[in-house]
Automatic annotation (TrEMBL):
TM regions (residue ranges): 12-27, 33-50, 57-73, 79-100, 112-130, 136-154, 161-180, 192-213
A GO molecular function held by the record: hydrolase activity
Coiled-coil ranges (or none): none
Entry similarity comment: Belongs to the TMEM86 family.
Protein's cellular compartments: Membrane
Membrane topology qualifier: Multi-pass membrane protein
Gene Ontology CC terms, in alphabetical order: membrane
Stated name of the protein: Lysoplasmalogenase
Keywords linked to the UniProt accession: Membrane, Transmembrane, Transmembrane helix
Amino acid sequence: MPKRALSEHRPYLLASLAAAVSYFFVMDDPIGGIWLMAWKGAGVGFLALYAAHRGKGFDGALIALVMTFGALGDVVLEFSFLVGGALFAVGHLIAIALYLRNRRPATTASQALTGIALLAATPAIAGLMTYPLPNWQAATGYSFLVGAMAAAAWTSRFPRYRVGTGAVLFVVSDLLIFAREAGHIPAEVGSWLIWPLYYGGQFLIAIGVVQSIRKHHA
């Protein structure tokens, strides 16, 4: 049974890693077009397939939806920053619902403080970095959702060193996007850091939630 289970879910994770790692080396191709957009979406898209195939029950469906909206957002961001951000926002709302459904029975003071810090600091930093650029309010509001997602993940019953850490990596990657767009960091630095942090965060979240769900059902 363990060998069969491994053979059933490993291809999705391997395909996801292959797509994400290879995309990192071609993402600056100036003539990429539609094929490059699809390549970008494939990394998290395969994580969505992994979650749909290996997840259990309603929580499994929720994490599959989170990854699906993430993959769609990856693609749409290439031609519309606002629409792509809206797709990610829907995914964050679903993720928040998932994590609140799975709240940790008892939260320590340090865990609660970390959650509060993620909730408050994420939009504050985004607002300070993007003001007074156009749409700075949208960036701040979106970052509030990202911070809420990370706070809910950190205080959920899911493993913090996978799901919680993954959510924090997602926060950092988004803040780096805003820092790059506002000119606070060189574009080259953003290009090297944002994608690995973002995909690494999504990967940790997907495997952490799915494995926890399966262990709970077992």
